[in-house]
Automatic annotation (TrEMBL):
Pathway: Nucleotide-sugar biosynthesis; GDP-L-fucose biosynthesis via de novo pathway; GDP-L-fucose from GDP-alpha-D-mannose: step 2/2. The lineage of its organism: Bacteria, Pseudomonadati, Pseudomonadota, Gammaproteobacteria, Moraxellales. The gene is fcl. It comes from the Bacteria. The record marks S110, C112 as: Important for catalytic activity. It catalyses: GDP-beta-L-fucose + NADP(+) = GDP-4-dehydro-alpha-D-rhamnose + NADPH + H(+). Transmembrane segments: none annotated. Its EC number is 1.1.1.271. It comes from Acinetobacter thutiue. CDD domains: GDP_FS_SDR_e. This is GDP-L-fucose synthase.
Amino acid sequence: MIQDLEQVIYVAGHRGMVGSAIVRKLQGQGYQNIITATHAELDLTNQQAVNEFFTRHDIAQVYLAAAKVGGIHANNTYPADFIYQNLMMEANIIHAAHQNGVQKLLFLGSSCIYPKFADQPMKESALLTGVLEATNEPYAIAKIAGIKLCESYNRQFGRDYRSVMPTNLYGPNDNFHPENSHVIPALIRRFHEAVQTEQPEVVIWGSGTPMREFLHVDDMAAASIHVMQLGDETFKANTQPMLSHINVGTGIDCTIRELAETVAKVTGFTGHLTFDATKPDGTPRKLMDVSRLASLGWTASISLEDGLKDAYQWFLDHQSEARLS
């Protein structure tokens, strides 16, 4: 499919981990008209402001990577923030895109949309077949709503709004807050500080037995652009009803204990690992079935250890600007 490198592309959430990676990848492919807006310039929860932004720009494509995200602690502590802000941002952007004639949009969701005890690996068809994990249910419901918004505008108005569901992401521009971050940046910071202060032990939340899949954000950006660039015929060729979203992951998982051991290796920590089983584990296992994306011509290329080395190096190089508090 021939791409118009001069078309206007809006990346919502360009300062976040995923949005910034998408911008880098688009620029690397030669796209010349990528527009962005900071929170100070555009409050995505403000419907009028979002409508006016779309009216001012002749946007051809939208990558909707803006979201309020966080780990178990953050989701437990701020459930109203997670459901409200995510619902408002996605609804405002998707509706404004439609009203202003934007035909192509990619919505980025999350693997937490699937039921807590979904069969593993999780297929796209598992959506809405069971109870969600309680610790992040508000966030998951918001992301499910985003999928259904895209699906509904496609059905009613003939739009081409696609959704991708990434597994757990990590990499440059991650949030390294000690409590509100996801597991990989939290561990990177914790192990780094343990090395710096010569601590003999690092305590890790949970039992260490849950299994998780992790995808480097550069792979996620590549997959997102790949899905956006697939021709319309790709989604119309199947005689069966097409699913409204596509899983993105590696198809490989590991235990939290194995992850912690790898982070310890990457950061040079040689002390003892202690697992605090009084803290919540979350879902027992979350592994994506990525066969559909593979059939569409894309598979992940960055191994977990190589990706962790890259993430740790970024952390070392950007401690003064990383989100640490």
